Amino acid sequence: MKLFPKTFFYTLGLMLFIVVIAHLLLYLFTKPEWLIVSVSPNDELSFDTSLNVADYVTRTVLKALPLSLICCVVISIACSFVFSGKITVPIKQIGAVTEQMARMERDVACKINSKDEIGILADNINHLYKSLLSAIESLEIEKQRVSESERSKADFLRAASHELKTPVTALNATLENMILGVGKYKDYDTYLPECREMTGRLADMIHDILETSKAGMSAENEEAVEVDLSELLSSLCEPYMLIAKAKGTVFRLGLPDSFVAAMPPQMFGKAVSNILANAVAYTEPGRTVSVYFDGRNILIENECVPIPKEALRHISLPFYRPDFARDRDKGGNGLGLYIIDTLLRSMDISYSFRPMEEPQGMRFTIHL
To answer: I need a labelling partner for 263 at 20 to 30 A (CA). Which of 55, 103, 129, 137 fits?
Structure first.
């Protein structure tokens, strides 16, 4: 039986029971006493005339009893109906709203008209549904993030296989021609060192690919700690200052006495190292590499030929090299900026990489 008829019949039965008991007691209390005859010591009989009044009252009450009973029954039915409606209507409303919630309809909530148990239940359902929607949104965001990550990994593997295919094919063709003794490839003294250089470049490329594939995972696993970036950047710049000096490049370092921030130090250091390596590598002798703070931003600038805007759109793609540096021997393997982008995104650190007008060059800005 549903809640409404159950509550209705329960309250109706209770009220009818009370009505019957009330009228039964009324009947018993107003029941007429029979004629009492009293005998005096002188053997005289006497009659109590008040019995006539009681009998009159009894007859009057008994005459009104059916009408009173009918009125009480009608009132009981009406009260039971109203009471049952007051109890079950809020529950019906909660049931209708929860059906909408089950269909994941947005912007639905139970109306709270009281502070009793039903009102508390409605409020708890509202909080539960909001938490459920929030959890679903978080799962959708995480699902999208994982999907993008998987797509990025697949694209990276396809690009890596394509990059490895070319040198492997060239190495295989050179070795096969040497084995067959075809033309100039009979000169082993010339082509064996070339084959060794090819294998060295392949080994370096494979190492970079493996390091890149582990970069995002390592950044997610490393905990953020308080780091003095002035001290960290000073230690990171030391080897590149020596490289720049050997090339004849000017390396300017301007850091505050102390700058503390919370971040994963190893991954941040790896990202900055890649930025410094690119800056030093692409700066001609006599030109300048500068590292300094601007407020809460770290700026790494190098004077060079600016990268075209068209190339900047694709600069963070794996194995991408701008047109003026497509040569693998001079332009690198195209993984440097991809590694930087992967690491900084994994640490939720925003950055910008834009050309400078005066002096001409490129500026890498890390926003802390």
So the answer is: 137
Q: Which is nearest to 229 in space by CA: 207, 208, 256, 204?
A: 256
pLDDT given at position 319: 66
3 state DSSP class of 254:
strand
- Distance, in Å, from the CA atom of 274 to the CA atom of 340, rounded to the nearest integer, reads 7
Q: Is pLDDT of 326 > 60?
A: no
> Residue for token digits 């009492």?
36
Q: Is pLDDT of 219 > 60?
A: no
Helix (H, G, I), strand (E, B) or coil at 292: strand
Is the pLDDT assigned to residue 279 strictly greater than 50? yes
Phi, psi of 335 (to 5 degrees): -100, -15
- Residues forming a β-bridge with 355: 362
**How far is residue 257 CA from its own chain's centroid?**
38
8 A C-beta contact, residue 86 and residue 11 = no
The pair of structure tokens assigned to 183 is: 């033309």
What does the DSSP 8-state code read for residue 306?
P
Give the SS3 label for residue 295.
coil
Strands (E), 121-228: 225-228
Lowest mean pLDDT among 177-191, 233-247, 269-283: 177-191
**Does residue 124 register a pLDDT over 80?**
yes
Q: Report the largest interatomic distance among the alpha carbons of the chain, rounded to a whole angstrom.
A: 169
Determine contact, residues 66/12, Cβ cutoff 8 Å. Answer: no
Question: What single-letter DSSP state applies at residue 256?
Answer: -
How far is the CA of 199 from the CAs of 168, 170, 188, 296, in angstroms?
A: 8, 11, 16, 44
The structure tokens listed for 311 are 């190339």
Task: Report the distance separating Cα 35 and Cα 328, nearest Å.
Answer: 132
| Residues making up the chain, counted from first to last | 368
From residue 179, give the alpha-carbon distance in Å to each of 55, 165, 314.
Answer: 139, 21, 41
Cα–Cα distance between 99 and 96 in angstroms, integer?
5
**DSSP code of 47?**
E
Q: How many CA atoms lie within 13 A of 119 on its CB side?
A: 6
Return the closest-CA partner of residue 175 out of 196, 206, 204, 156.
196
CA distances in angstroms from 246 to 284, 331, 354, listed in the order given? 12, 20, 27
